[in-house]
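Researcher: Please generate the 3D structure of the following complex. Treat every line as part of one assembly.
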Amino acid sequence: MNAYNFAYLDEQTKRMIRRAILKGLAIPGYQVPFASREMPMPYGWGTGGVQVSAAVLTPEDTFKVIDQGADDTTNAVSIRSFFQRTAGVATTTATRDATVIQTRHRIPEEALGEGQILVYQVPIPEPLRFLEPRESETRKMHSLEEYGLMHVKLYEDISRHGHIATSYAYPVKVEGRYVMDPSPIPKFDNPKLGDMAAIQLFGAGREQRIYALPPYTQVVSLDFEDHPFEATKADHPCGMCGAQDSYLDELIIDDAGGRMFVCSDTDYCEARQAAGHKGKDAA
Amino acid sequence: MIELTNVSKTFTLHNQGSAVIEVINDVSFSVAAGECVALTGASGAGKSTLMRMIYGNYLTQAGQIRIGDVDLVQAEPRQVIAVRREVLGYVSQFLRVVPRVPTLDVVAEPLRTLGVSAEVSQARAKALLGQLNIPERLWSLSPTTFSGGEQQRVNIARGFAHAYPAMLLDEPTASLDAKNREVVLSLIEEAKARGAAIIGIFHDEAARDRVCDREIDVSRFTPKVAA
Amino acid sequence: MTPLLSVQGVTKRYGAHIGCADVSFDLYPGEVMGIVGESGSGKSTLLNCMAGHLRPDAGQVVFDTRTDGPRDTITMSEPERRMLGRTDWAFVHQHARDGLRMGVSAGGNVGERLMAVGERHYGDIRDKATDWLGRVEIDASRVDDRPTTFSGGMQQRLQIARNLVTGPRLVFMDEPTGGLDVSVQARLLDLLRGLVRDMGLSAIIVTHDLAVVRLLADRLMVMKDGRVVEAGLTDQVLDDPQHAYSQLLVSSVLQV
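Model: Done. Output below.
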């Protein structure tokens, strides 16, 4: 694949993206505009995350891609092989072995460390979008810290459902300043955003925005005093590895409506099974 | 209490060739507390005009109109409003109210704007409406649908709700039957007894003779219009 | 007594065209002032300049703030001005949908200003919103309904509740009864009068409806071609207009 520059993007583009990343790290939670490029995949398939990954990858890196926690879905497999071919970097499915992890909709169960970078794919970076469609107005609201509207969204949730029903893309406030959309991760993952040792980078390709959380950043999920934030998950152990503390996918396993719950983080589940843990549905 | 000094007024009709009409020329008189003075003169002599000038409703071009210690001719709008709220009551010939508001609230409103509680204001309003023979079943309805005589009595009740130290009464007994006329006259007598200075226009001569201490013929101040 | 709002020499041009020119007046606490004039007379431009929606080319709009006393709102920083807009000021638009979030429930609409100033207790916010719905005569059972399901009059009352919930001291109203049926207008006028009296509000009402100012406003300003041609007590201006234009305006209306 010598026809391509390392990691597909040309060096000027990577510099432009790195500048946006550095600015994002300097102003945690702030959405930095960047000149998103056309990538050889459709919008919505991770074009923002791929560009951020391309800008931070070095030949020595080990790359991992997860989609809803799994290493083996179409999206994860194709992005992994994309960088295998265009950057020639090593790849892995083991969370602890990876130096750069691109993710869609999950944070790995295993705690990340200081040498690692977590790259999120973001469809809609603007948390205020659904209540205030004018970009000019939302920018002003961010710059003036007028975030009452964010609570209106949560208020509407409670008034309609009796509790805060937002279960993913749950808004957070970063370092007491910017309100940020954490990408559509389940709110179960929200507590991991704060105080994380790894660098977290968020890329929105279609919307042309990059934002970031440097290591050990304070991240607080928004809530009401009488309806405090709760990180929820299905109230079951994993059927395969028996884990009590992991985020679970619910699978329908037969035509009779039989269900099983398994870890959404496939690496975590497999590692536990290899270590001898066994759930009730394990073969 | 009420004191007019060299008061004059003209109307300028800009849309009729800027015609200037002198209506009141150099009026001076005063009304003391507890006194009732009648304005007299033929129809068109300017009785109502003068009364509206005293209320601040018509702009006065020259002179002073003092109500208590405020000169309404020079006063800021907010001072005029304060005088009207606290000192100077006016019973006009026409009832002007927000549609839909119940009669009881219409009558209680002058007290409510003075900060009197709803209960006390309504109690006073009920007493007055009862005294003026407005049937209780009408109290919760808007007076806009009432007959002329009923509207006039609601207007009087409203005008007497607060014990104003100065009052202007424009034909208070017109279109009232004997019984209600008697009620209104006794209200005026009560107001005088508590020290109100009153200026009134009465076509009803018997009423005028009964409550008024003296008369002022307004035609004396009306410039003679060339016939 | 310090005026709540002191407007001095406010001028706004649109290129060569004059929006409003050299307008000055003082508004005292508890006063309601009407601004009348025909379309294009500059009354809405003036209102928007005073409310911070438009920046005038010249002049001052001095508001007596709670914390720092009189401040020129034209030169204060935008965050400060927007904070006033959420707390001490209210703006009632002619079209309720310009002042409401149509995709948010009635309770959320009323609660927004509370949340904007930092209230974070859902139960309290909801209780206050419900209380305010009652005060503007909207049944408490509608608290979770969206304004799209409300009639025009209800939407306008909801907009008023949403504006008054934080206890503002000055309310700007742009044709608040425009576009409503006459009977609905009457109800709204009655409501506004009661609220103005009970909350001790000051208000500036722009309208072309002389009947509305007669019933609501203590004072009146008549505008023509961007300038104030006459100002005074409402009933004095309406019953004894001095300026040629005011006389024309009053005489061209059916008896009010």
